Amino acid sequence: MRFKTTSGASGDLFNPEFLARIERLALRSRRNLRGGLSGEHASRRRLPAPTFSDHRAYSPGDDLRHVDWFAYARHEDLHLKLGETEQDINVTIALDCSASLDWGHGELHKGRYALRLAAMLGYLGLTSNDQTTIWPFTSKLIKPFGPMVSRARGPDMLRYLSNLNWAEQTSFTPVIQAVRRSAGGMLLIISDLWTSDLEPLLRAAAPPVWQVVVLHLLHPEEIKPTLTGPVEFEDSETGQVLALELDQQTHKAYREKLVRWVRMHEQVCQRYGATYAGIRTDRPLEQSILPFLRRRGIIGL
To answer: How many CA atoms, within 13 angstroms, populate the side-chain half-sphere of residue 94?
Structure first.
């Protein structure tokens, strides 16, 4: 079954060309995540299995289907074949829907980019038959999508994402609360990180129960502003207004502070065993985030 786009806004946002690219991908997880036994990911759980990797002695009550009869014919001892069982995992996408994402134009719009990234990652989870959930959040948790399994739920996911709006302030507090109620798995955080509580979230979603990837979205104007002269900035989340004279010295001070701010997030992620990726919205997914995730074993072809 091919993954089909829906009509209307989602048809423009999630067009057939975009869907064709992500259909080739398969989600992989690290081998130490918890999970059941129905998915497509290799597990370290050494149980009797048809895929052979080792032996152990037979014990009364063991399933005779896993006996290595060829070894018995040679040695007249009963041993079970052990293998790496397959497991499913919980794939959770925490999607920032605060007002600061409603910024930029066209393909560079942060919210549009975030939705396409969430659709890509959600699709990868569904096609791998993983329990896939999307947690949109602002200062509260919006009604989630899922958990769902199977690519057949893909159109439902696209319709769901297409109906999300950008409003209110960013806070990871509702995500922290949801993490504490969950069993663990892979947590993919999509946010511009205009909030100060990332560290408590990473502390709550610690390994080995969770594998966390922080996907930090930035518009190119946030990285290297082009405005000059007297300007007034209005915080899209708080409404606070700041008047500035933008000259060469101001731009230099801003870039230095931005570098320190990004480095701080990288260090926090490293401290808690999370993966950090800074993502510019002017770079296509294939040229930035997909190679990054492949190199780190999050996804593969």
So the answer is: 34
Phi-psi map region of 273: left, alpha, beta (phi>0 left; psi -120 to 50 alpha): left
Q: Which two tokens stand for residue 170?
A: 């960013």
Superfamily of domain 9-33+89-299: von Willebrand factor, type A domain (3.40.50.410)
Question: Can you tell me the mean pLDDT for 52-58?
Answer: 61
Q: How many CB atoms lie within 10 A of CB 105?
A: 8
> Which percentage of the chain shows pLDDT scores above 70?
63
**Separation of alpha carbons 166 and 281, rounded Å:** 17
Task: Tell me the DSSP string of 117-184.
Answer: HHHHHHHHHHHTT-EEEEEEESSSBPPPEEEE-SGGGHHHHHHHHHT----S---SHHHHHHHHTS--
Burial class (CB in 10 A: 0-12, 13-18, 19+), 33: buried
- What is the predicted pLDDT for the residue at 45? 44
Residue 72: is its pLDDT beyond 80?
Answer: no
Residue 105 DSSP symbol: -
Q: Is the pLDDT of residue 127 over 70?
A: yes
Query: How high is the pLDDT of residue 204?
Result: 95
**Structure tokens that stand for 68 in this block:** 């290595």
Check whether 57 has a pLDDT greater than 80: no
pTM: 0.74
- Candidates 144, 195, 147, 191; CA nearest to 173 is 195
Residue 245 has pLDDT above 70, yes or no: no
Domain ranges of the chain: 9-33+89-299, 41-87
- Please, what's the b/e burial string for 108-138 (b: 16 or more CB within 10 A of its CB; e: otherwise)? bbbbbbbbbbbbbbbbbbbbbbbbbbbbbbb
Sheet holding 185-191, edge to edge: 145-148, 131-137, 90-96, 185-191, 210-218, 275-280
What is the distance between the alpha carbons of residues 188 and 209, in angstroms, rounded to a whole number?
A: 14
- pLDDT score recorded for residue 151: 80
